[in-house]
Write a structure and sequence with these properties.
By secondary structure, the protein is an alpha+beta fold. The protein has 2 domains: about 1-40; about 45-185, 3-Layer(aba) Sandwich (Glutaredoxin), CATH 3.40.30. Helices cover about 45% and strands about 20% of the residues. It has 6 helices and 7 strands; from the N terminus they run αβββαααβαβββα. The chain has helices at about 1-40, 60-65, 65-75, 85-90, 105-120, 175-185; strands at about 45-50, 50-55, 55-60, 95-100, 130-135, 155-160, 165-170. The longest helix has about 35 residues, at about 1-40. The protein is globular and about 40 Å long. This is Thiol-disulfide isomerase-like thioredoxin. InterPro entries: Thioredoxin-like_sf (IPR036249).
Length: about 200
């Protein structure tokens, strides 16, 4: 009789624990769903020609995917930052945010984006103030991040201060990324390659 009571107690206890575990899993799942829904998709890839392209919001981690690191890493490592211009540029980067529209499929973006990251790293720029938007070859995103931004060519690097656009570099710099950035951020007259 004692054995039967002991076995029934064990079964009841394990059923109770199983129910608690199930509740924990259900709670965890709903929390994960909430956090998943509240998070924006980042580093989303879609098929492109024989590979993939990033499309929408992205970051440096996305550029380290196999499809992109073959051009990003050498472009970053091999770029020699103009240290003289960089020293002049650093104070102007303090209160600035930067939005980059680029295409992982685009040779100009493949050239300029790693260089920009290297410059910003050397300047100790806060990467949380950099927004990377990757576009289709029509310069669009599913979320319409480009809407109202007049993105005609990529890369387009837009500099903001207090949510006001200070200027932009379009497709390629006029002198160099560092010198063009300094001109824009210091308030000198600057016209990008496609300015009328």
């Amino acid at each position: 009789m004692k054995k039967i009571i002991l076995i029934l107690s064990i079964i009841a206890l394990s059923a109770c624990n199983s129910s608690k575990e199930k509740n924990k899993v259900e709670k965890k799942t709903s929390t994960e769903m909430i956090s998943e829904n509240s998070k924006e998709k980042i580093n989303d890839t879609v098929p492109y020609e024989d590979s993939v392209m990033l499309l929408g919001k992205a970051n440096r981690k996305g550029l380290q995917m196999d499809a992109f690191k073959s051009w990003f890493n050498p472009g970053y490592q091999d770029y020699s930052v103009d240290s003289v211009t960089l020293e002049k540029l650093k104070p102007f980067l303090k209160d600035v945010t930067i939005t980059v529209f680029m295409g992982t499929w685009c040779e100009d973006s493949q050239r300029e984006t790693p260089h920009l990251y290297k410059i910003l790293d050397d300047a100790k720029f806060d990467e949380s103030k950099l927004t990377l938007i990757t576009t289709s070859d029509e310069k669009t995103t599913p979320q319409s991040f480009e809407k109202g931004k007049n993105i005609t060519n990529v890369p387009t690097i837009i500099f903001y201060k207090n949510d006001k656009e200070l200027g932009r570099i379009v497709e390629y710099p006029i002198e160099s990324l560092e010198k063009d950035m300094l001109a824009i951020l210091s308030g000198k007259e600057y016209k990008h390659a496609y300015a009328e």
